[in-house]
Amino acid sequence: MRSRLRVTADEVPFSVMHSFHYRDGELFCEEVRLAQAAEEFGTPLYLYSAATILDHYHRLDRALHEIDHLISYAVKANSNGAILKLLSNAGAGFDIVSGGELFRVLRAGGDPGRCTFAGVGKTPEEMGYALEQRVYCLNVESEGELERIEEIADAKNIRAPVALRINPDVQAHTHEYVSTGSEENKFGITLADAPRLYARAAQMRHIDLRGVQMHIGSQITAAAPFAEAIRKVTPLARELKEKYGIEFLSIGGGLGIVYERSIASGERAWWAEGHQLSIQEYADAILPELRGLGLRILLEPGRLLVGNAGVLLTRVLYLKESGRKRFAVVDAGMNDLIRPALYGSYHEIVPVEQPSTEQRSEIDIVGPVCESGDFLARDREMPPVAAGDLLAVMSTGAYGFTMASNYNSRLLPAEALVDGNCVRLIRRRQTWQDLVCGETDC
Ligand SMILES: *Cc1c(COP(=O)(O)O)cnc(C)c1O
Description:
By secondary structure, the protein is α/β, with parallel strands linked by helices. The protein has helices at residues 34-41, 50-63, 81-90, 99-107, 124-132, 143-156, 194-203, 224-244, 269-272, 279-290, 303-306, 339-343, 432-436; strands spanning 20-23, 26-29, 32-33, 45-49, 69-74, 93-96, 115-117, 137-140, 160-167, 189-190, 207-213, 248-250, 296-299, 310-322, 325-330, 349-351, 361-366, 375-382, 390-393, 414-419, 422-427.
């Protein structure tokens, strides 16, 4: 094992670098006491660290400084306007998957010329909107979609900048619901089909071939699948550059973060767990393939930028025992954070007040929703928990709020952003009136 002393900042798994830490016996985000934020805004509350988001962005940016690149934040990970504004001001572009996400980016002052539009099921309305707003590129996933874009561009008499999403057929070794780069997935066009489709697109009167794209999955914690996918696609990228003058290769997102033991076991707990993917390792693996390509490289990280930058604060409502099981019923449920129920995801959960004992015992942390799948953690070793305690569900900045719903007519939680010693509300909690405001027959 390598010596801890020789670890440089960029070798530390990027995901563990976050601004949540215990100080004076309680959990802080940057200079803000989480207990104070919960007091002020109520629970459940998503709370994000601006410093952590920018730190991840800048470190990835620096690691790639030697090549022409653009970091296009995948908006679906966390689409709050305040976060989009933060990243837009830092120079990020945006990878969007719906007209709604483009609307959000524009509203936050994002540059459409730095937006790429992904997704297998873009509607004609969404395509028209994106073309009118002059997005940088539409990433196309099927021949039918290509034909539709040509039709719409023809009707509007505008140029349509297009890239094809290639499915490089690699195994990303991640959860089956978030693996996208093998031939069994619905995503992309096979390498074998690509030359014919590019040739066809080149014949279309309104299409400008601008790039080639891929994205092999999410929460990938090894560099090898990224490198393999790039190796498989670069010959095609070279050929397309020569034939059609494409200007970019997008290598997608999918960089994994650390979900386990990022805080409870103390500083650098990840080290004992074995080496995880670091920015430097990722850059070392991909740069050799990309250096001589002469193409602009787009990256589409979502989870990496915001995942470890957020927590979900929730309060314990009741303790309950049944048979041998113990439950802590909390005020956040699967409607607030669906990842444990949907993917069986692990999120570290820590008390906001630092535990004064080493004592741990198993407990299920469950929400108020009427489903047995409504849990945040099962059989979790936790320090003593009491009704009224405040808990922080760690690493919930990505695919947390954006996947929240009103199931059980529960209100969408509030969101807050910390910047230094300031914390401000960036989305107010919903009200009961919000629940019914779109309903028309009552
Ligand atoms: C979801 C998605 C991403 C972001 O994935 P992360 O795992 O959050 O980095 C990037 N590109 C495309 C096309 C996506 O669908």
